[in-house]
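Hey all, quick one. A colleague (J.T.) asked me to put the zinc ion job into the tracker so the inputs and the structure tokens live in one place instead of scattered across chat threads. No bug as far as I know, just bookkeeping. Sequence used:
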Amino acid sequence: MAQQLILSGKVFIVCGKSFDLLPLKNLIQGVRFSGFTPNPDYEDVLKGTTVFGGGKFDTIVAIGGGSAIDVAKCIKKISKSQAPLIAIPTTAGSGAESTGSAVIYKGGVKHSIDCGLPDCVFLMPELLKTLPLYQKKCAFLDALCQAAESWWSPYATEESIAYSKKAIGLLLAGMDGYIEKNLDEDAETVMLGANYAGRAINITATTAPHAMSYKLSSLYNIPHGHAVCLCMQAVWEYMKVNSNLTILTELENILSFDDFKKILRGFEMQPPKNISEGDIDILVNSVDADRLNNNPVPLNKKILYTLYEKILKG
Ligand SMILES: [Zn+2]
């Protein structure tokens, strides 16, 4: 690992606060920026851009989950920097290392910013060791949903479907050993699966479950993957009952809806708490229109209302 990570020149590190717990913390020296939260805010990106200060650095290293990688992508874009961006994911699931867009929130509203792919990616399963169980589950489910959504996206291509299949196969194969037993070999399998899921959505973008998840995540302060899997369950069930898409049948040959529900139950993914009156209206009116239009079955506001009702009830 050490040999692979010798970096020359001035290094700008975008990392989460857990960086100090990682085995590679002594291998990467440079100016650090950690001033962002999960579901990162645009203001934080601007702060990071100020710290980055244009052309002062030779390399940008993003070490962390999807938030760190997305913040780094945006800093590079806003600064118009030519410095290469090296992404080192410390979760298995966001796929941020293999997508060109970054998800940033402005006043609680999600924006997808086109930044381009990181220049180089290191997948190091040993970095997953310190992840809390709940975070592992959320990231895993994000990847699984990305792969399934990409599969049924109207923009799916032969290449993207091959990535989705590969992603789901790897994620399911490594799931038990990675989530429950923390086995290195399975962590590697899941990390690779998540990377393939990212490649799939880099071609197709995501669909309704992601579209509905962003406000759910910001309103109740729950991790992205948690919000996505709750929306996925509701949307998938609706599409199963109300459409007869061949693509759904094909997906079910590899990941059935019942198996997906079983995973959510096993992971104990609960509906959000502290629900207030009027929340469903807020949610329905905040769905990401681009991603929603990418869904193979159209969902109007009335349908979205009933889906959110289900999601909040659990
Ligand atoms: Zn996602």
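Adding what we noticed when we looked at it: The chain has a mean pLDDT of 94. The two ends are 44 Å apart (CA to CA).
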